[in-house]
Amino acid sequence: MNLFASGENTQLNACVGRNGWPGTNYYANGFDSAVHTMCRDTISRGFGPDEVVYPIVFCARHRVELFLKMQIRLIERVRGHITVTDPKLMRTHDLGALWEMYVTVSEQCDPRYKEVVSLIEPAIREFWLIDPTGETFRYAYDNNNKKHLESTVSLINIEVFYSAFCALSEGIKNAEILTDFLSNEYGTGTYTKQASRSVIENISKELTRKSNWRKSCFKVVKNGICERYSISQRGLSEIIDVIKSHREFAFNIGIEISIEDISAEKIANFLEFRIRVTAESNKSNWRDGLLSGSDLDREFYSFLCGNYSIREMSALLALADVSSPSYYSEAYDDLCAQYECGESDTAEFSGYLNGKSFIAPKIIIGLKKLRQISTLKHISSVGVDVGDLTFF
């Protein structure tokens, strides 16, 4: 007999160990899936619950424990200044200690955790009270030979438990999604000790235009912001400094910070030519265009090679990339630098840009995200449709 071997039905071969390098999230999701599978089968097939209740609740509790341990470590890294005071607690099975640690680090990290914490807290506290160390549903007796659950509960309805677990499982996943979201947001580097990027953006919209800051009413505006967001005057000054140097947020106070990697004229010329080429042909890439003998495709390729530097073409590609919802506006500079520092030469860049038939609308979206209003107006003036600019 060989228990731990592969089989002919490859769909049932589980990848473990170094085969795929599964992390703690695989374990956590596995215990979560096991609870769903066991509960659904017990309910739908009418299995007797007296025995299966133990692996069901054990798996559910262990899912919670793994969630807390993973999230504590991940939240520590979101802003980089939070440290768990006692690293040994990460090796404990004490659900109460882990929960308190999770609450502490989430509060220190960002106030947006408050809602998700409040939603999952009641169920996790129930697990904590019934099975604080993960032994209750794992063994019938404790280390003192005392039977578990004798003085706590006597009946556990699988339907009731599963309904509550589904809500908890959904809450846990939302908490994990929030951590991923905040990791990306704080990864932009746009935050201060007292304010997240989200708060800074809101404040940039509440401040008046910079030209009005010398007026007496601006003091009232600042005091109101400090009160609403519970920040100090010094903290607000730091936030204002961030806003003034931030392309997207500076626009809200009447400052336009132009990109310096490529001129408005060159962007307009590129878009005008690119749109004309796209309208003339639906070639999938620049090589097809060259091989098919399209004069306009060859002309566009030569136009790029002869008139645009690698830095300028990097800027065009970065503008297109940053248009994606997966990027914050801060990503533009890094994207541009990555393209510029790559190994491609001018000819390769030209060919790549020539093959991107749908790059024009993406560049326009990227310019809007970076609040490049002057550039957009110039592009519009040469007859390229940039869409609605009333927002600006």
Fraction of residues in H or I helices? 55-70%
Q: What is the string of SSEs from the N terminus onward?
A: HHHHHHHHHHHHHHHHH
Low-confidence stretches: none
- The whole-number mean of residue pLDDT values reads 91
Our estimate of the beta-strand percent is under 5%
Please state the overall shape, judged from the principal axes of the Cα atoms: extended
> How many β-strand runs?
0
Number of H/I helices? 17
- N-end to C-end Cα span: 72 Å
Radius of gyration: 29 Å
How is the biggest beta sheet arranged? Answer: none
User: How would you classify the helix and strand content by structural class?
Assistant: mainly alpha
Question: Can you walk me through this structure?
Answer:
By secondary structure, the protein is mostly helical. It is 62% helix and 0% strand. It has 17 helices and no strands. Helix 1 runs antiparallel to helix 5 (158-186) and helix 6 crosses helix 8 (233-244). It is extended, with a radius of gyration of 29 Å. The relative contact order is 0.07.
Topology, element by element:
Layout: H1 24-45, H2 49-79, H3 95-109, H4 113-130, H5 158-186, H6 197-206, H7 217-229, H8 233-244, H9 247-250, H10 264-280, H11 286-292, H12 295-307, H13 310-322, H14 331-340, H15 346-355, H16 359-369, H17 373-381
